[in-house]
Structure formats: structure tokens, C-alpha cells
Amino acid sequence: MEVSTKESDRFIGLQAGAAQFRVSAIGEDKCNLSSYNRRDYFKVSLILKGSSELMYANRGIEINGPALVFTTPIVPYSWEGTGELPVGYFCLFDNEFLHTGGRMESLQESSLFKVGGDPVYFLDQDQAGYLESIFARMRLEVDTDYLYKYDIIRNQLNLIIHEAIKMQPAVAYFTPPNAAARIAKLFLDLLERQFPVDSPRNTVAFKKAGDYANQLSVHVNHLNAAVQEITGKSTTTHINERIVVEAKSLLIYTDWSVADIAFSLGFEYASYFNNFFKKHAELTPLAFRRVL
Description:
Layout lengths: L5 H4 L11 E5 L16 E8 L2 E5 L2 E5 L3 E5 L5 E5 L5 E7 L1 H5 L20 E3 L2 H17 L7 H17 L7 E2 L4 H15 L15 H7 L4 H12 L3 H19 L4 H7 L5 H12 L3 H6 L2
Antiparallel strand pairs: 1-7, 2-5, 2-7, 3-4, 3-6, 4-9, 5-8
Helix pairs in contact: 3-4, 5-7, 5-8, 6-7, 9-10
């Protein structure tokens, strides 16, 4: 039984500006986010009761009591139910939501969301009650018509973040069965999360096998061996094939310059991209665009 991120997958719509935030009870089908994309949104979950396992990168974490969980759009994760369904709240927001409020530190580099950090904070009853009251207030506030409600919610979210910073995670990890298959799936999920590229200003963050290994907290040799064993292709082959597919799509469906496409796909110089594309597509980018 999987509870994974299905509750957030129902969120299909994003309003602009300060409304880049949603809060909900777990399992509640109420709020809508019209262009919700897990690439962009951080998630804070408050688990009050229930039994589940958080599969986070290549680690598994058993959660059988109150816990506060921070997940980042960069690291693949899922929830797997092991008993009673979780009860609690979760909220989604992007980096800009807190940045607008004067928080200058990138969430991706913060102690709570940093890749390789501990995402789970176990709570005592007093902490759980306090955090539940904050989530409940956010849940009520988000439905009001008050002009400055997102300023209030931003302050409430900061209270949750600071409460977590004061706590020291006490997390017991386990190694999931069939580790090679899981690592390969995590790699493919993380690869796919980088696409589609929707703006020349947004560059692909991970282009080499070592980049993915760092994000998944595994040695690059371990990653390469797992991907080769499970898929029959090397990590580099998967990366190159996906970049070529994206490059062709951008050449066909956008009017971006070759230099813009090269930059968005992680190439420092357009000449590097030209050589890469010609090697894999047997045409230069401009020649490919002309024959369409």
C-alpha cells in the first residue's frame, strides 16, 4: 500500500505571486494547484499518527509516531504505508515564498533541506501538539479573504522551520531490499525531474554521473554498477540520451537560439553542445532544425 506523494499529486494548479503555497490535511482533496511540479516545491509534513516508511534517496526511515518531515524537490522520495494510514498535515511552497519574506538563505542549502541531511525530526507530545496548532491555523488562514494572509502564513511556516532547527534529528535508517533496483529507479527519477526545460534561464543542474551520485549520497561506482545491472545501460548513456531527446524537442518546438539551448542543457559553450549533438544525432543543431 502506497501513500507516497499521491495527496500532493492531486494538487493541479499554481497561482502566481504570494500564493505559491498550499496546506492541507493528509488525504484531504480540497486545495488545487494548477501547475504543481515537484521539481519546484518543498514539502513539510507533520505526521501525528500512523505507521509508514519514508524512502528518501537510497535510505529508508521508519516512522511510527509523531514526526516532522522535510523533503526537497531535488531528492526523489516516496511514502510507503506499513499499517495504519498516516494522519496529519502537509504544506507545499517554493523557495520564493519564503525569500519574499526576507529569508535570504536558499532552502536547498539550509540545514533542513540540504541534500544528504536528515529529513525527519521525531516529536514528543508537546512538540506535536504545538506544531499541529500551527498547521491548523495555516489551514484555516489560507481559506480567508484577508489581504495579507500569506504574510501571516509565512510567519507561521517560519515558526515551524525554527522549531525544527532547535531539534536534533534522531533517525534510524535501514537499507531497502533490492538496493540496486532502488538506486537505479532513484537515478532515473532524478534524471527525469530535470525535464522538460521550460526556460533558457533554467539550466539542467546535473549532467554527469558524479552529480547524480552526490545527490543520492552514493559512490559514483556504486551508482554506475546499479544502473548497468538493472537497465543494461550505463549512467552516462542514460544522461546523454535524455539530453539529446530534450535538445531535439527544444530545436523543434522553440525559437531559442542554439546558444540558449546549450546553456539550458548545462553546456558552458555552444561549441561543446554542437559537438555533443552532432556525435549523437549525426547533424549539427542548426542542420537538424533546417531539415524539419
